[in-house]
Each structure stands twice: as structure tokens, then as C-alpha cells.
Amino acid sequence: MKVLHLLASWKWTGPAEPALEGAALLARSGEARVAAGISSLEGRDQENQVEKEARRLGLATLEGLKLPRHLNLGHLPGDVRRLAAVLGEGGFHLVHCHTLVDHLTAALARLLAGVHLPLVRTWYDPEGPSGSFRESWLLRAGLEGAFLPREEAARKVAGKTGGRVETRILLPPVDLEGLDPSLPDLRHAYCCGKEDFILGVVARMQPHRRWDLLLRAFRRALWKVPTLKLLVLGRGPGWEELVYRPALEMGLEDRLVLAGYRRGAEFAGTLRTFDALVFLVPGSDGTCRALRQAQAAGVPVLATRRGILPDLVESGRDGLLVEEKEEELARAMADLALQRERTRAMGAAARERAERDYAPGVFVERTLDLYRSLLEGGGSCAG
């Protein structure tokens, strides 16, 4: 089958990384011939990061589309005409969209071309479709299949479409091989001793990520378990105001390690260094990739009940879920450190979850299953 993935973004942020990496996995599977329709735009001082990554991943690209990240009525007509011409040639069996802009472009292009081929959309927001006019119209007129990160979002799509749209629950894959818990960690590099219990954090340094609550709870937990350490992976303009200075004022400087930004093997090794991950608030990635990567590294997760987090963590089995209260969070931190055998068992269960739900092979098979179902229903424009 020939599949066109559309991605309206020139920045390597939001859905760009999971969208293109997922498309590359499908291409490498040999079951689908994949091309990517990506933005040709770039920033004033930045190159087109998505185009660069598409080349690195070996994806064939469709030229001539602007596809801005945010809807631009100046670019939309030209993109619709260009895409309609491509679809009219009959070279693709299915179009897979990843943002509102490329979904709208594809739906209008299909109408203009007068062809019927299935349109599929991946929603990365755990809430699924918004209630906007455009999203509502697209659900009615421009969608046959949908991938969503949780059951609640799938039920929303079913309710809005009368069950006409086929849905699948699917989360972006993670690199299980690179995150193998048996590989070396970086405990020594971060000057952490064997007796230290390392609570890890992976988050942008922004106020809404509740750094205030995290530091207060950590200080309280230290009163009970003096061997706790807080290892922070992340960056952001607010690092000094939100993390460093408050930690100094609380007297936490000897128990806090700011690791900054890490990539590749260093990132994976740092995750394996964590004895547990603390994850309070989902960030811009609605599928909480960092949390799921930690699970793949065999790390249990201490999380709140915000958004999708209860769908990703089974409290008592592969992590703990707590309310956003200082005392409760501190108690859970201390319990994880004091009950290390139980904590290690939860880490093993977290890895099992990752193998079951986030494996690249699982992602490919679930994606192809929906593709096949739609195409067997006769929704192809090419033979």
C-alpha cells in the first residue's frame, strides 16, 4: 500500500518527532510505501528542522507544500490545489494526517480532486478532537480512521461520528532496545553513591510544571530519608528562578543535580540512573513520551492524576498515583526509597508495560491493521 503522511510543521516539536519516526518505522517494515508531505517553510533564524529530520530518517518527501504549523489562509488554497493534483494522479491509497492544518488541507484537496481515499488522523492530545467548528466539520466530512492516545478520546470520536469512524488506541513507540534496563547507568557520572535513592525529573523549567510543589515535597521527604537525591533533566529560561534559587533557599543544594539537556545515549543512561521518575504535569507532548521512555528503562513512575497520567500508570503495580498535595507526594517519595524491593518490582512491571504498549513492532502492526481495514472496505483511489 502507498501512504502519504502529512505534517504541518517546520519545527521539530509537538507531534513532529513521533509522526515522522512512526512513518519511518512503517516504511522500514516493508508493508507500506511511505512518503511525507512536510512544510517547506523555515524560521527567520532557523532551518526547516522537520525537512532535515525527514532526510535523516530516509523518508521520501512530497515537494511544493507550505503547510504552516498554524492555519494560514494565504497558504491554504495553494496547498489544497497542489495536494489535489497529487491525489488525482492516483498514486496513494491513503492519507495520514497529524495536525489540524494538514487534516483540513487533505480533506479539501480530496473534495477538489473528486477522489475517495481514506483519510486517517492521529490525535496526540489525550482529550482528542476539540469542539471547534473546523474539527467538527472534519469529523463529519473528512475522516475515516483515527488513532487516539486513550479510550476517553476514542469514545468522543465515536459519539461525534455515530461510530462511522474506525478508531484505535495507539501511543507513539519508544526505543526499547536503546533503553534496555540492563545497559549501564550514569550514577557515577552524577556523583551519586550506591546508598542514594535517585528521584528523577524530566521536564521543561516552566511554572505550570509545579516545580514549587516538587521542591517542597522533596524537602519534606528528605526529613524521613536523608539519602534521597533529585536529578533533573531539562532546560528552560526559568531554571534559575523556578529551580536553582528556591532549592538554595530550602537548603537542597547538596541533594539536587541539574543535568541540563541530554540526547541519545546520555539521555538513555540518565533515565536508567533514576530509581523512580516523578511526573507531576504533562507538558506539550500529550502522550508523555518522557514518562513512557522511563518506563521502558525499567523505572517506576510517581505521578499525579492529571490528564492521561492515570492511563499510563497503574498505581501499586508499575508506579504510584497521588494527589497534588505536598504531604502525600512526600510520603510517596519516602515510601519508594524505603521499600526498594517493591520499587524494583514496579520498575520491572513498567518495562513490561512498555514492551506491551510502546514497542515499535506493536506500533507498526496496530497502524497497519487500521490501514488494511479501511482499504479492504473499498476506500482506495488507486489499484
Describe this structure in words.
The protein has a 7-stranded parallel beta sheet with strand order 3-2-1-4-5-6-7, sandwiched between helices. A 6-stranded parallel beta sheet has the order 10-9-8-11-12-13, with helices on both faces. It folds into 2 domains: 2-173 and 359-376, Glycogen Phosphorylase B (Rossmann fold, 3-Layer(aba) Sandwich), CATH 3.40.50.2000; 197-357, Glycogen Phosphorylase B (Rossmann fold, 3-Layer(aba) Sandwich), CATH 3.40.50. The chain is α/β, with parallel strands linked by helices. The protein has helices at 16-29, 49-56, 76-88, 100-113, 133-141, 151-161, 211-224, 239-249, 264-273, 289-296, 309-312, 326-338, 340-357, 360-376, and strands at residues 2-7, 33-38, 60-62, 94-97, 119-122, 145-148, 166-169, 197-202, 228-233, 256-260, 276-279, 301-303, 319-321. The N and C termini lie close together (9 Å). Helix 1 (16-29) packs across helix 14, helix 4 (100-113) packs across helix 5 and helix 7 packs across helix 12. The protein is elongated, with a radius of gyration of 22 Å. It is built from 14 helices and 13 strands.
Question: Which features characterize this protein?
Answer:
383 residues; alpha/beta; Rossmann fold; seven-stranded parallel sheet; disordered C terminus
